[in-house]
Amino acid sequence: MDQVMAQDTLNAFSGEMRLAWEPLSAKLVATCAQQLEELMRADPAEPWLAALLAERPASRELYCDPANGFMLLAHNENEGLYRPPHDHGRAWVVYGVHSGALEISTYAKVSGPNGEPRLVLRDRSVLTAGQARPYLPGDIHDTRCLTRSALLFRFTERDLRHEDQVERKLTRFVERDGHWTVPQA
User: Fold this and answer.
1) pLDDT per residue over 28-63, tens digit each?
2) Range of the domain at 154
């Protein structure tokens, strides 16, 4: 992104999040969701958004804060793309739908009859254009793209690639015998 460019919605979002940044609180999560909803109302002619809409990359980092580590990513998804139940480890995230629709189910982890962990469906909802929803540390959810295509924004309080690949803090659940459960070690 050209740093000489006049203030745009993406720059405003990152600036507001830097100003609001503090340890996890209800206020911070609400501010992030509100700022993400404002970002989704950006003029499609803004260069960063025009590029996303034209190129439709599977994933693109839009911003990474050098001081606080939070990140904003964009994801273009196609109808039926399913991401099985997972958590984000120690991190919290806010998903926002710019265009299209995303079904998100949430789960609770319980003990099965033999003491093995399994997931129980808690809730299923649909996020549509302009809506944002937070998921806190430990929240378990899946996602499914419901429309021909969807442009999603995902705000993460830290780099989840590091959380996942280096620290192994994320859990991706697997289906076994008709139930979602933890992967076998």
Assistant:
1) 999 999 999 999 999 999 999 999 999 999 999 999
2) 9-159
Rounded to an integer, what distance in angstroms lies between the CA atom of residue 152 and that of residue 124?
Answer: 18
Q: How many other CB atoms are there within 10 angstroms of residue 152's CB atom? A: 21
Looking only at the bridges linking them, the beta strands covering 71-78 and 101-111 are unpaired
- Cα-to-chain-centroid distance, residue 155: 6
Does residue 152 contact residue 95 with C-beta atoms inside 8 Å?
yes
Q: What pTM was estimated for this model as a whole?
A: 0.87
**For a pLDDT cut of 70, what percent of the chain falls above it?**
92
Judge whether 88 and 30 are in contact, CB under 8 Å: no
Number of domains making up the chain = 1
Which tokens go with 45? 């002619």
Tell me if 146 is assigned to some domain: yes
